[in-house]
Amino acid sequence: MLNFSNTYAQLGDEFYQRVRPTPVAKPELLMFNRELAESLGLNEALQDHSDLIASYFSGNELPEGCDPIALAYSGHQFGHMNPQLGDGRAHLLGEVLDNDGKRFDIQLKGSGPTRYSRQGDGRCALGPAIREFLMSEAMHALGVPTSRCLAVVATGESVYRDRSRPGAIVTRVAASHIRVGTFQYFAIRGQQESLTKLLDYTINRHFPEIGVDAEDKVLRFLEAVMARQITLIVEWMRVGFIHGVMNTDNTLICGDTIDYGPCAMMGTYHPGTVYSSIDEHGRYAFGNQPSIALWNITRLAECLVSLIDNDEKTAVDLAQSLLQEYNVRFETAYFDMFAKKLGLIGSVPNSHELIVDLLAKMKDKQLDYTHTFARLTQSLHDNILAEEMKTELGSWYESWRACIDNCEEGSDCAEKQMASNNPVVIPRNHHIEAVLLACEETGRTEAADELLKVLRSPYKTLTETLNYQDLPEDGDRYYRTFCGT
Ligand code: AMP
Ligand code: MG
């Protein structure tokens, strides 16, 4: 079906539990990602056999060559260490090389209990499964590094959450599932040998340019992880994504987005925006994401101290001086990103000021984040809109326009840059909720497919795009998300 290999399973028993998915009553294929399937070389003959696909991606039938395991990991959840997490409702079937030779994990989620389930039932409800499919596909189309979904299969069984809900299994495709929490798992247990094994495996898989024999490999690894986190968080900030549960077990070393549980898109701009009902103190608010990423990388660095240098003080000093660079590196990437959103090409002397002032104005005037940048883009060729925005944003608009109009490359070039950095449509919370409700009530996924078509072209206005661009009536002030279990 797929050409499976199992390099993670070869690491040794301490890394996982070998365990099979628990079969489900009546698997039915609801969503399938053909483009992704093709890139992974899924047998073409199989693509039209939805019953077989449902059987494989529910775990009822195990494809040849897979070796299902539940991975062990720990993690800081809302700042508190939980030593015993792990895949409590997921099975890694194995890995597959895509058409470019890049290795991907194929994981079932909601596929039954494991040693790591604790009180959980090992299952997943249909709503959160479809939500993960929609959100991750939207993020991928937006250009944000992310894990993706290959399939959603209804189980024909109910799961009990706030009430009885239809159950589903989602197949996740990720560059790997190695988390900061995976390193923590071995570090807190003092399992040095396994920690080194994990480090070398991760370097080979994600950062082969470092080389496992390099003397400074640990610091270079940390630096590479830091660079990927900076890219990731800057991209989240660009599109207004709030992850909602940036625990260290939800932070992938490869720098892709994972765990779409309580995530949401920011409507009205405010750095303090929080939608997750479990994030009582706003630890993971929109504007806190950059500093939380540093907090998480610092936890990773702590795991690796003993491998950096035999002398602890030397090791800590080396790690600290690297981590101290985070803020400057982040700011540079962050302002570069906003310069692109505003079409500021080349070195514009007052660009930082323009960016900071605009964000302050948006906060003051409670403007919608996506809509404002999309309108600024459009205003470059729409004089009526330009006048409107001049009234709305006052002298800021005139200063900004002066920069664009004086740009050597010409305003066309600026507009092009803005159009490819400012989406015209995002997966707005009220649309996602409406679609999930429709899918749950009907057991069918047409509503999700329609939305998906638009979300797959976030920088283009299709005929159907208009149906999904309206702003939430309350600016999402009362919107709440729940951990998608
Ligand atoms: P998450 O909130 O998805 O990051 O999950 C945190 C931990 O809880 C992980 O170890 C999950 O495997 C586990 N978990 C979440 N939901 C369930 C469930 N329904 N059954 C078993 N384990 C679960
Ligand atoms: Mg998680």
Give a short summary of the structure.
The chain is an alpha+beta fold. The protein has helices spanning 34-39, 50-56, 126-142, 180-188, 192-206, 217-239, 289-308, 312-323, 326-341, 351-364, 369-379, 383-393, 395-405, 411-419, 429-442, 446-455; strands spanning 16-18, 28-32, 69-71, 75-77, 80-82, 90-97, 103-109, 124-125, 148-160, 164-174, 241-242, 264-265.
Could you please describe the fold and organization of this structure?
The chain has 485 residues and is α+β, with helices and mostly antiparallel strands. Among the domains are: 167 residues, no CATH class; 154 residues, no CATH class. Helices cover 42% and strands 13% of the residues. Strands 2, 6, 7, 8, 9 and 10 form a 6-stranded antiparallel β-sheet that branches. A two-stranded antiparallel ribbon has the order 1-3. α11 packs across α12. The longest helix is centred in the middle third of the chain and has 23 residues. It is globular. It binds adenosine monophosphate and magnesium ion (MG). The site of adenosine monophosphate has 17 residues, from loops.
